[in-house]
Amino acid sequence: MHILLTRPEFDSHALAQTLGAMGASSTIAPLLEIIYETGPALDLTNVQALLFTSANGVRAFVQRCGVRNILAIAVGDATARELEQNGFTNIKSAAGDVNTLGQLVTTTLDPKAGELFHAAGSRLAGDLEGIVSMAGFKYRRQVLYRAETPDVFPLNATAAINDGLIDGVLFFSPRTAKTFADLVKKAGIENKLGKITVYCLSPGVKKMVENLGWGEIKVAKTPEQSALLALLNAPG
Fold first, then answer.
1. Tell me: the pLDDT tens digits for 15-69?
2. Which domain range does residue 175 map to?
3. Are residues 134 and 156 in the same domain?
4. Do strands 168-171 and 47-52 pair parallel, antiparallel, or not at all (unpaired)?
5. Which of 26, 62, 103, 162 would give a disulfide with 16, using CB separation of 3.0 to 4.6 Å?
6. Are both 107 and 183 inside the same structural domain?
7. What residue ranges in the chain does DSSP mark as E strands?
8. 209 lies in the same domain as 220
């Protein structure tokens, strides 16, 4: 099986290694470029917990702050692993999405214990601020990175699709999926997807690409990488 990977380059290379161990090969064609914001050290005065909604948020945070002992709450297990790899010592994982992250915060933390600091990107998914603010928490978001999309579909991906080399495409975010849909139409290759299976992390991701004429569309049971990759070996 040959899989097209469209995640940012760092994430795609790590994912390619995982897929290789599963016996699948990959073509890497990032549709997002992560750009980290520079600036002074982060002020964590009166912060009781750090909220991370992506692994990129973790990578951006560690470039600006040396603190590792404050409670760090990750949206999912992949983000939690990134925290662990960067030396954080007190980690919780919501093992889901922004809603489950908000639920974990509101059911386990005390609003009176201090602020919540969200290490965020320039674009947000969901309404984390609304969820925690309604529960009485003081929420502080700081944009530490941004993700930029290309203007044209990557040439290596175009060639691989035209040559019939791609068996599947993995999508982890609605934005990446929408970028793919827009750019394949712009490249004039949307009619080449009929034998390709698309694997989507969530129904929201599926919505962005469901009208492209895929051979098959599969959606992970939970919004976690492990659940998405499990689809590769699932029958049917």
1. 999 999 999 999 999 998 999 999 999 999 999 999 999 899 999 999 999 999 9
2. 2-32+150-233
3. no
4. unpaired
5. 26
6. no
7. 2-5, 25-28, 33-36, 47-52, 71-74, 91-93, 115-121, 139-148, 168-171, 197-200, 216-219
8. yes
